[in-house]
Fold this sequence. Notes:
mainly alpha
Amino acid sequence: MHAPKTHQAWAGLHPMKRLGDIADIAQAVMYRGDAGFVTGEILHVDGGQVAGA
């Protein structure tokens, strides 16, 4: 989504100091598919942005 030359700068803005990738989203989707007892939750896949870290 962003030009590769800007990735390091964008990563510095995240609490985890990296940008997310497709694998991060895929892992969240797989978790939700396997978590049969989890209902009505919002799963934030954002590297800690919502936590305000």
